[in-house]
Amino acid sequence: MALLITKKCINCDMCEPECPNQAISMGDEIYVIDPWLCTECVGHYDTPTCMSVCPIDNTIVSDPAHQENREQLWEKFVLIHHAV
């Protein structure tokens, strides 16, 4: 499933440059994750880098509105990075 940045976000700017899919951008008040670009780093890393660099626990969580399994995340990665 895609990830979601909660209102706990302090806009520290740590997550945005770490996203290999450029799925993170500044929203109206806090950073947001585009669920159509988020693959939870499948295809790039073993774990989501945004979660690992975030200094506030439980700020980046699984998005219940965009549930995907690892295979679906892999297919999304292929579409994003290998589209012909």
Automatic annotation (TrEMBL):
Keyword hit for Acyltransferase: no
Keywords: 4Fe-4S, Electron transport, Iron, Iron-sulfur, Metal-binding, Repeat, Transport
InterPro entries: 4Fe4S_Fe-S-bd, 4Fe4S_Fe_S_CS, YfhL-like
Domain 4Fe-4S ferredoxin-type span(s) in chain numbering: 1-29
Gene Ontology molecular function terms on file: 4 iron, 4 sulfur cluster binding; metal ion binding
Pfam family, one: Fer4_7
Name of the featured protein: Ferredoxin
